[in-house]
Amino acid sequence: MAVHSPVDQEEGLPAAAPASALLLTIPQAAALLQIGESRCRELVAGRCLPVLRLGPRSIRIPRASLEAWVLSAAQPAEEL
Q1: Taking the model in full, what pTM does it have?
Q2: Which end of the chain is flanked by fewer CB atoms within 10 Å, N or C?
Q3: Alpha-carbon torsion 41, 45, 50, 55, what sign?
Q4: Residues sharing a CB contact under 8 Å with residue 16, sequence separation 6 or more, in sequence order
Q5: What is the pLDDT along the chain (80 residues), one digit of tens a residue?
Q6: Is residue 11 domain-resident?
Q7: Residue 34, exposed/middle/buried by CB under 10 A (0-12, 13-18, 19+)?
Q8: How many domains is the chain partitioned into structurally?
Q9: What is the CB-side half-sphere exposure of residue 54 using CA atoms within 13 A?
Q10: Three-class SS string for the chain?
């Protein structure tokens, strides 16, 4: 029986979360945001990203909250 890794073997990147996934791991959220995992962890530690703590070491980011955070943080093009 084959064991499937959560990492894409060709690219070395975290496997993408299924579109139906309600909760994302930090690597999955980082991939969606197109940022590094360390930067994503900094945003979590700084309480910028909404998270669910499912235990002392288990953190999940709700997809809907992540999408809402991105929309609320976005700036109109004329302000850039």
Answers
A1: 0.72
A2: N
A3: positive
A4: 28, 31, 32
A5: 444 445 444 455 556 777 788 999 999 999 999 999 999 999 999 999 989 999 998 999 999 999 999 998 887 777 65
A6: no
A7: exposed
A8: 1
A9: 8
A10: CCCCCCEECCCCEECCCCCCCCEECHHHHHHHHCCCHHHHHHHHHCCCCCCEECCCCCEEEEHHHHHHHHHHHCCCHHHC
Q: Which amino acid is at 37?
A: E
The CATH number given to whatever domain includes residue 57 is 3.90.105
Q: Structure tokens of 2?
A: 């084959």
d(CA 41, CA 48): 10
Beta-bridge partners for 53 = 59
- Beta-carbon count within 10 A of 66 CB: 19
**pLDDT at position 14:** 58
